[in-house]
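[Automated response] Your request has been received and processed.

Submitted sequence:
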Amino acid sequence: MSESYMERALLKIARQINAYDEASLMDLWEKYAEIVRRFEPTKRWEEAALLFGVIQGMRLKNQLFNYNWALSRRPEEPGSIDLAALTAPPRASKASGKDAPGTPDGKPGPDKPQAPKPGKVLKLQPKKK
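Generated structure:
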């Protein structure tokens, strides 16, 4: 199947974004989260919301990559992805009260991939005048 002009353009953008490292993009997270939090009906806000989504997308892509890489290192387990479990905040351990799964001290075990850090939920509201 041939790619449409739009698909080719989006793939080019994806390749350019993928060339950046996550840390560099995450340095911009707070700036764009704040702009998106303060809604205003402007092109600036729309572009910031799209950029914020791109930053979040890079983070998710890396989490999925790391999760699948860890699974591929353990061939005895199926490689299916449970996105809800991957993106959900870690549960507190009853024994230690720690948030991370794995050993009793809360550290990931050698056979367990480290759980991703929970995301931040933004409360979006109109800008007060």
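Summary generated for your ticket: Confidence is low (pLDDT under 50) at residues 95-101. The two ends are 51 Å apart (CA to CA).
If you did not submit this request, please reply to this message.
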